[in-house]
DNA sequence: CATTCTTTCTAACAACTGTTTGGTAGAGTA
DNA sequence: TACTCTACCAAACAGTTGTTAGAAAGAATG
């Protein structure tokens, strides 16, 4: 590593660090006020700089959303792929995927909220085509997992599969809307209880005589 | 009824009818493109008139959202109150409330989507204070219902009550995001399966020997 | 027919939007 | 010290936004 190269790397990582900071701020503002209701001046305000200064770091407001969402989705799918490759049974895979989802909510809360609220509108732009890809992949994964669960005898066969898919998908991700890191319940505890509800239901089990 | 009064009523209802038409259009556009991303010109376009013409019927863009949301909430609470006053057991009440919710989604889909996506942001304005009231009332109703369910022995006692509340609330209402009237499943069928999932879980029940 | 009333159009407005340009303070380097 | 580079500011830009005022088309009414 020549000193020249170390410098270049140093400034590059410093720059990337600042980008990450600004993106974190932007994600927070986007999530709380809504993407299109948020002005770049509001994002800049929250970051302590002026509106135009954001354009030193980013091409456009859209590119901020782009980077926020793709970073989150990359991390999510990396986690998912690891789980899916572990060769677990359907029930254990399902549990692990749900747990990973809540870990993602914990780690990327504003990005998840942004994804939930705006992905449908953003996806109409070709730039955000990867949102549709992710959506399809998501559906494929869950439908496959549910079918496997039924085949393995661990999931009920009398329910409409696409409906169960939407049920689980929505159930898990909307939690980003109210979840607060450092709150009463940890992401892990929430995941556990959610799993219990989804798998066993909230009904009291009649005592087996 | 004097002819004079009949005329006045006639024009009044005609006017109200036109308002309702325009509100239905506005709700659809708000729901599909997002409230703040929607321009009044887009709403007017969808209604076949020009942007400024909307202001003959409505004070502002905000007042359209206001009327859309309050109409929906009024209908919803009327239904809920009827159910709650019926004096049913906790389990039956829960089932009826869920069913009513899906009927509301069926009848007010765009309004529900609007409510889901924007109520959090809109509620910061004093004009939309009733959204917070509704939210509180909703929480109160569900927490009470869940507690009663546990007391009556029909619901599990080992789950975190506020978590179960959010679980049910979110689970039910997000369906507005993908539900399409006239689709493969009716609102009633979806309600039935949702209830089955929430109450009994999606896990296969081991055959009782 | 003339008149009134309802609904829409035309044409603008001020404010705000995302974005660009050129300048500048300050740290790092030689 | 002189130079360079990074990160920001200051000020503007063109387009869009919600909204308004006055005119006009057309139906209803007398």
Automatic annotation (TrEMBL), chains A, B:
<dbReference type="InterPro" id="IPR009057">
    <property type="entry name" value="Homeodomain-like_sf"/>
</dbReference>
<dbReference type="InterPro" id="IPR041490">
    <property type="entry name" value="KstR2_TetR_C"/>
</dbReference>
<protein>
    <submittedName>
        <fullName>TetR family transcriptional regulator</fullName>
    </submittedName>
</protein>
<dbReference type="InterPro" id="IPR036271">
    <property type="entry name" value="Tet_transcr_reg_TetR-rel_C_sf"/>
</dbReference>
<keyword id="KW-0238">DNA-binding</keyword>
<dbReference type="InterPro" id="IPR001647">
    <property type="entry name" value="HTH_TetR"/>
</dbReference>
<dbReference type="InterPro" id="IPR050109">
    <property type="entry name" value="HTH-type_TetR-like_transc_reg"/>
</dbReference>
<dbReference type="Pfam" id="PF17932">
    <property type="entry name" value="TetR_C_24"/>
</dbReference>
<dbReference type="Pfam" id="PF00440">
    <property type="entry name" value="TetR_N"/>
</dbReference>
<dbReference type="GO" id="GO:0000976">
    <property type="term" value="F:transcription cis-regulatory region binding"/>
</dbReference>
<dbReference type="GO" id="GO:0003700">
    <property type="term" value="F:DNA-binding transcription factor activity"/>
</dbReference>
<feature type="DNA-binding region" description="H-T-H motif">
    <location>
        <begin position="39"/>
        <end position="58"/>
    </location>
</feature>
<keyword id="KW-0804">Transcription</keyword>
<feature type="domain" description="HTH tetR-type">
    <location>
        <begin position="16"/>
        <end position="76"/>
    </location>
</feature>
<keyword id="KW-0805">Transcription regulation</keyword>
<keyword id="KW-0678">Repressor</keyword>
